[in-house]
Design brief:
The protein is α/β, with parallel strands linked by helices. 40% of the residues lie in helices and 14% in strands. It is built from 8 helices and 7 strands; from the N terminus they run ααβαβαββαβαααββ. β1, α3 and β2 form a beta-alpha-beta unit. It starts with a helix and ends in a 7-residue tail after the last strand. The chain binds S-adenosylmethionine. S-adenosylmethionine is lined by residues 54-57, 64-65, 68, 89-92, 127-130, 133.
Length: 256
Amino acid sequence: MNEMKDEQVIKDDDEISQLMNKLKKFQAILEESDFFKETKEIIRNEKFTYIRCLALGSPSSMKTPLFQLAYVIIILNELEIEFKNLSFYDPVFTSVDEDLLVTQLGATIDKEIPTHFEANSTLYFLPHAPIELMNTLLDSIRPHYLLCNDVVSHTDGYTKLKLFEKYPKVSALLNVTNQDQKVKPDEEPFVVPKSRNKKKKGQFIEPVIDYTTVDVYFKSCRIIRLNHANKDQNWGTAFSDLSYHIITDKESPIDT
Ligand SMILES: C[S@@+](CC[C@H](N)C(=O)[O-])C[C@H]1O[C@@H](n2cnc3c(N)ncnc32)[C@H](O)[C@@H]1O
């Protein structure tokens, strides 16, 4: 019995040290990349003290989450944030993931966000997170800074109405993002001439959606795309569509 237990411990230790080696290798690859140079440019002037990572998947089981973990670690190092201020949650974490994240790295796993993580100083990293999770986050946690899949392309499988009915907070965010991008302060909105605006027979008319019925904390969202996050021979599609979202509070005097 004892022999079996010892064998298991050796196997686990082996697994963890192999994982740590792989993780370091992935960190080194990313550190050399234009993608990370671009990331540094974006976060350079931000004052983050905490990082909250959701929807990572299992880094001990798959390459994509391990690459995403490597990325969040080099961001953490760049911002000189301590590992104890890096918090994860994903229901799929295994005991090996827990060992890797908590025992080896010194980060934490928290189902709920630690209460001292303030929105203004927390960077959220949500690689390929479900839209439902994004909706819950916008509803309850009210984040300001998100590194996640571009909310515009992430939701393009939905009609405006379907998105509004299913994920109202995400839909409202998309609405203020769109307005932001289409109408810049020094530009006049484009008005379709009346003669070209006539409904043709059988033509689909987009229903009018009243976004004021959705209670949200934000007034605008600026998206900065990471152009070098594309598919790569090393990390595959781990960072596809990754973009930095700056969400501005309704109360904020600043306009993005
Ligand atoms: C599409 S997978 C992405 C996994 C990995 N990041 C990737 O890019 O392959 C979505 C992940 O979200 C996780 N997830 C679902 N609900 C969640 C929640 N409430 N909080 C944190 N993670 C959640 C799932 O367990 C799953 O691992």
